[in-house]
């Protein structure tokens, strides 16, 4: 089957996907056409936490998921961490270039090989206001992930997250309603994230010290958080401010 | 309040067009380092900015540029058809009801929250324009990171070919099918954000203010 046809068939397949099972079946069919054994579409959260929300669909051996959850790897898995450093798909051989590999990371990859998961390719999914996630494809241990599948994996990975988004809905338990902060509150949050004190912010924005305190208090209340650090994180997560806003000013 | 200006080069919106070409220079030449011609050191204008091009511009109350996009008829020379035809595995889609979206530009001065708002208003304007002007499909060439974002808007996208690594990064070609259901899909994805529209020349159908 030509490679574009594989991607097209997948796109048509997931267009009608309503449940996670539908998406699982579409990914499984697509893997069959690519002649790739494994897929894993997941949000990067710790699924061993019973409160965890998010989608996780994979056909890895069951023993792998158990070991993965026992070690709470949802947030620290080296492949997941590497995907935070890239906005395009990458082969697993590139992971040491994307992140500093710890001995624990090497043992994770070793454990994966032990259960039969070999080389792979991961497509990151980063959209402001959503949990980070990724879609990976992998071949059997001892095999090399074929270079000619990188592009089709990239397309399928991207479209699979589009379907995942539709299936889970945009509300993911963390996202806040739209229009959460006023423009002035946002100004204060931005300067707070840049490390300025309330007094410094009042000078920068040319408003009273008390007004800054009130803006930040109301902003914290809207998000239901108590600390200004958490406030900055929430605004960052929602995409109301970006890393570039904070780091490059 | 922001508004959307729908115009071509002959529409008489000279100030808005100048502001857009200047904003495009700051984004595509200064920021993204695309290898593009620059007029008088301040305007990014290329051969496709001609009488066939249509522009959607999100402007603030004072007429300042917030975001813009260029729509090119696919029966005329356009980016996918003339520069990147190899990104489409099949014949490049061309037709009277197919337009190409190019130079999707969000002003460099915008902060993240504003960027998202303007992005949504511009996407909404693009869909609204299609519904008013009987555009059935849009095509477009996008860098992979942006392509991934385009997919997240909830509309009906399909790949036209395999992504290819070019000097400017990995590029892919997409088509987006527009139907009366598209606004509801964008609404579900949290994108749909209509703003008042000024159209030059005036639109033939209702919806000019939609």
Describe the structure.
The complex is a heterodimer of chains A (249) and B (210). By secondary structure, chain A is of the alpha+beta class. Helices cover 51% and strands 11% of the residues of chain A. In chain A, helix 2 (20-34) packs antiparallel against helix 7. The mean pLDDT of chain A is 87. Chain B has 210 residues and is an alpha+beta fold. The relative contact order of chain B is 0.17. The A-B interface holds A 2-4, 7-8, 11, 15, 87-89, 125-130, 151-152, 154-155, 158-159, 161-162, 165-166, 170, 178, 181, 186, 190, 239-242, 244-245 and B 89, 111-113, 115-116, 144-145, 147-149, 151-152, 154, 156-159, 161-164, 169-170, 172, 188-190.
Properties at a glance:
heterodimer, A: about 250 residues, alpha+beta, Beta-Lactamase, Arc Repressor Mutant, subunit A, 2 domains, five-stranded antiparallel sheet, 5 strands, about 50% helix, about 10% strand, B: about 210 residues, Aminopeptidase, nine-stranded mixed sheet, about 30% helix, globular, disordered C terminus
């Amino acid at each position: 089957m030509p490679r574009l046809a594989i991607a097209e068939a997948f796109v048509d397949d997931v267009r009608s996907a309503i449940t996670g099972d539908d998406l699982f079946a579409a990914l499984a069919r697509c893997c069959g056409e690519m002649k790739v054994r494994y897929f894993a579409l997941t949000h990067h959260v710790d699924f061993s936490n019973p409160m965890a929300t998010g989608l996780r669909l994979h056909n890895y051996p069951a023993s792998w998921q158990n070991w993965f959850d026992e070690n709470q790897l949802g947030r620290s898995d080296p492949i997941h961490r590497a995907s935070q450093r890239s906005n395009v798909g990458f082969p697993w051989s590139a992971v040491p270039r994307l992140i500093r590999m710890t001995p624990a990371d090497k043992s994770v990859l070793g454990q994966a090989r032990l259960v039969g998961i070999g080389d792979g390719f991961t497509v990151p999914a980063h959209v402001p206001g959503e949990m980070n996630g990724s879609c990976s494809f992998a071949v059997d241990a001892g095999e090399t992930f074929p270079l000619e599948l990188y592009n089709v994996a990239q397309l399928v990975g991207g479209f699979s997250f589009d379907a995942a988004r539709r299936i889970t809905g945009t509300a993911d338990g963390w996202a806040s309603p739209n229009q959460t902060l006023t423009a002035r509150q946002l100004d204060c949050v931005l300067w707070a994230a840049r490390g300025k004190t309330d007094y410094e912010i009042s000078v920068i924005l040319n408003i009273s010290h008390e007004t800054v305190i009130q803006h930040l208090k109301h902003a914290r209340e809207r998000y239901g958080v108590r600390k200004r650090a958490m406030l900055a994180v929430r605004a960052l997560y929602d995409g109301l401010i970006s890393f570039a806003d904070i780091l490059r000013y | 309040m922001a508004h959307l200006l729908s115009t071509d080069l002959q529409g008489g919106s000279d100030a808005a067009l100048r502001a857009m070409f200047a904003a495009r220079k700051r984004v595509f030449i200064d920021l993204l380092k695309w290898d593009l011609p620059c007029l008088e050191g301040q305007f990014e204008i290329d051969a496709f900015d001609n009488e066939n091009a249509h522009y959607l511009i999100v402007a603030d109350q004072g007429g300042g540029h917030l975001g813009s996009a260029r729509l090119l008829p696919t029966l005329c020379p356009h980016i996918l058809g003339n520069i990147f035809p190899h990104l489409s595995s099949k014949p490049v889609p061309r037709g009277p009801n197919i337009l190409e979206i190019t130079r999707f530009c969000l002003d460099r001065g915008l902060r993240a929250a504003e960027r998202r708002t303007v992005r949504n208003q511009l996407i909404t304007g693009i869909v609204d324009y299609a519904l008013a002007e009987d555009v059935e499909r849009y095509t477009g060439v996008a860098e992979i990171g942006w392509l991934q974002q385009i997919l997240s808007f909830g509309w009906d996208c399909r790949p036209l070919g395999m992504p290819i690594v070019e000097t400017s990064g990995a590029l892919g070609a997409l088509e987006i099918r527009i139907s009366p259901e598209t606004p509801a899909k964008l609404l579900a994805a949290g994108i749909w954000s209509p703003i008042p529209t000024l159209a030059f020349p005036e639109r033939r159908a209702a919806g000019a203010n939609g």
